[in-house]
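Tokens help. Consider this.
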Amino acid sequence: MKFAFVVPPLAGHVNPTLGLGAELIQRGHEVVWISLDETLEKLLPAKGRLLLVREEGGEDHRNKISQKNVYGVESIRFLYDDVLIPLNRHMSAGIESWIDWFCPDVIVNDHQLFAGAVAAWKKGIPYATSVTAPAAVKMMEDLPGVHEWEVQRIVALQQELGIEGGRCIACSEQMALLFTSREFFGEMELPPAYQFVGPVVRRPVAGGAFDWELLRRMEGKPRILVSIGTTFDHSQQLDFLRKVVTAFGGEPLSVILVSDETLLEEWPENFLVQRRIPQLELLQHLDAVVCHGGHNTVCETLTYGLPLVVLPIAYDQSHVASRVVAAESGIRLNFKRFRPADLRDAIWEVLREGKYRDAAGRIGASFREAGGVGRAANLLENLIR
């Protein structure tokens, strides 16, 4: 069979499809990714193919998010009006052209790349939706007003692209793959098409050499990872780093910090600072993680049974942080108002109180029970059968 993943140029949305696509290829299927990110080609599994939608007019859809300083509901409005709607409008014709050329049996559209769903609908091809940020589903119940506004924006674009009527087709009624477990997602009545398959914890190894020898020499003290992902490259990152240095500098901790090493002139001796890290491999050697609540990082951390301190900034991160707290697997702090002492106290609490690690282990077990890439691949194969 032939599968086409339609993905936005956002690492958190692409990474789960790489592991799932690799599984489908291993089973003998032909798999392509339709994207406007030419760097994706280097990350694809062997025999995977990139069908590139060209960017025109000098607009860089990939960097809009990292250049904007937004919080809360404002970030959701910005995400749709300034990023997703223009991105989907721009990619629509290229997606349809590649689908005509490749003739897939199944299209898998990211839940934020609804132009993929529009193309599948117009051409009568079965499609599944990859829900890489399950908060988008929970929002129907938690923030119904915001969800209704999102649907209106999507339907307006659908009509612009040739789909009549007011029915939102962005999420497939045939199959929606939620990359989490029911336990971590929380209670909510959902249609049968929604399937919890657990997170996909395969990702490409980050470029650049990691200093494993220095990490080995940092033995004897708890090791923590500090990362706020790749989406926040503006001024708030520098303020955050300074607070982290104040909180953990000189503490009996080994701190692995994901950052541009040149942002500060000097780092504490107990810090290992690198721009890119092999996160999945590194997590196996850590004791706790400090992050912004990105769904992939949180799920990967819990997969390895590690507790978290979460400081959500924007988009779906507040929801993810609330699930960490509800699952009793970590502590949430306010990104805009936390003091270095708050961060220091929180990390020592999750390290010393075994209840956080125990809870993280339970969530990790629920992820494995959900079935992962094997079950997700079975579901996609059965969609066409």
Observations:
- The two ends are 10 Å apart (CA to CA).
- The chain has two domains: 2-174, 212-368.
